[in-house]
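A common beginner's mistake is to predict each chain separately and then try to dock the pieces by hand. The better habit, illustrated here, is to supply every component at once so that their relative placement is modeled jointly.
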Amino acid sequence: MNCTDCKEKLVQYLEGLMPEPQRQTIEEHLKDCHLCRAEFKELKDLSQRLTSDSRAFRQTNLEDEVFNRIMRLQNEKLKQADALNRQFRIWRKIMKSKITKLTAAAVILIAVLIGIHHFGGSIDGTSVAWADVVKQINNYTKYKCRQRVVREQGPEYPTMDVYHLNLSQRRQEVENGDIHIIDMRGKDAITVELKPSEMKATLTKLIGFGPRKDPHIIEMVKRFEQESTERLGTKEVDGKILQGFRHVPNEYNDFTVWVDPQTKLPVEIELIHTNSGQTILMDEFEFDFELDASAFSTKVPDGYEIKTIIRDYRPVESKEITAEDIRSELNHTAYTVGKLPWIKKLVIMQVVSPLMRVGKVYLTGIVSNDDNNIIIDQSNTHSDYKEAMMEWILKEQLVLETPSGAKLYTHPKSSEYARIFLESFAKANSEFFDMKNLSEERFTRMIVMPDGTIMGLSANKQMSNEKLQEFVESLIEIKAD
Amino acid sequence: MAESDQYYIDQCLNGRPDEFRHLVRRYQAVLSAYLTARLNSRTAAEEAAQETFVRAYFGLSELKKRRSFYSWLLGIAHRVAKEQLRDQKRLAQADCPPKQESEEEKVDLDLEKAIARLPDSYRQIILLRFYAGRSCSQIAAQLDMPLGTVTKQLSRAYAKLRQFLSDEKRCKDELHRL
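With all components supplied together, the output reads:
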């Protein structure tokens, strides 16, 4: 046995993992070679030093203290949940959720969240009681309710009073005093967010978004099919007896409606979006509220400092573009990938946002020499919703911080998002990616650059932290020629 | 035989939160050692280790790969330490005297600092082997790697540790000479 062989096997020997004949060979070599003997002694000393240091720590007993803390926090969370919704049955989900507040900008999205899933079918009128309710609701074109959203993960939406003037216009009065006006009657939808406390307003023009009708909850409730509506019996709320109805849940929605038998109008509606883990609670209904038409005007009152955001929702054609195109389209710093020896191919595409189905996203697709498909996505949405998105990404989910200060976070829907982006690239450029090669290892990370720019990084196969770091460190700002 | 981390996590998520105790027991020494190195104080390390476990407990449902609990936990500890260091810095700026370490808290800080400097994969193995008292075969099973890889990694970790410790010693010696 030579010294190199011996040194390689010393740890195995020290750990007692060496089979007998080899063990003897090592021992014989150690007897003869003072250098290897010295090496072995150093290893043994270090091992002993580690063992003796670990002894001091093995006496640590944190169990009780950790459990006291957990119990305390759990009770606090329960109390919060209880205060929020005494009768609410998903308090367990709240305990799991990170309670964070969302910036007003993202609140507007609620409209989209609520409106995604329609019921099919028609009303056949066989159940007298439910038919009465529908008939009664049909007498009203406008209504107001209090709306609360409870989510399993991500930021918590604030409670708000929502005044629906019709299916295209509404006013949201948020608990923190903010006011949102949404008007989707024209070809360009307009949202106005007013912050009276700071006298600041954000006016967002959504070009090509309208005209659009908001398929709000009352409309959906009206479309309940009789045979699929189950009676839940009664319950008492504030001295009033309410009659419950529940629509047979489908894969998207689970509706429960509590009606006042005297007025035949909804008093409480609970809508669980089963697959997205959020529940919308509506109560404090007022039908035919009295509000001046100016309450729905998108004209910003005098004295407000206005920030205007333009979002283009017109159809987008998928096409190959250049880094320069990304730079000129983005309203924040644009990045491109630097030269790395393992990059085999690089393609830049403009596609319609696969998440929102409107608006543009700029994808940089990379094929690596180990046949991984990596996509960087950049868009103006990231910039508009920067703060809101950062709330989405939990601080606990930081996986990597590069020496230059770029941060990588896991995405709450990592695998799903990676699939969506890979699919979007596959549709736009079949040479870059074939959906048949979709891997179970795929993942998405959010990159937050030191200047605050947010980008998505999706890959079909796992990448080591070292490689991810190398990749992110290679990102360079696209500058004008 | 002790169950896997994954088993205890499943139990916790299936409504038996008390099973989390096993995970605390398994990793308390590991976290304390790692955090002592990061925070330079045994007391601060224990506080940070508690915080790490509490965060891990409430974050369990978000942990996608339950097999990777250990490295995930170290990641949380890393962030807790960072936050504490930031707070310490803020306190220092506000002219609060730094907390003095008592004699009994003295541990082999040079060694722990050297461990903290190791690359993640080596550190994981050293901490598991010595501070969680796991054998090489147990580590191989937990990290899902061949036994030979574990001993090789351990061997490289030893080499790095020796290098860091001798660097440290040289620095100190030079300081003495000045």
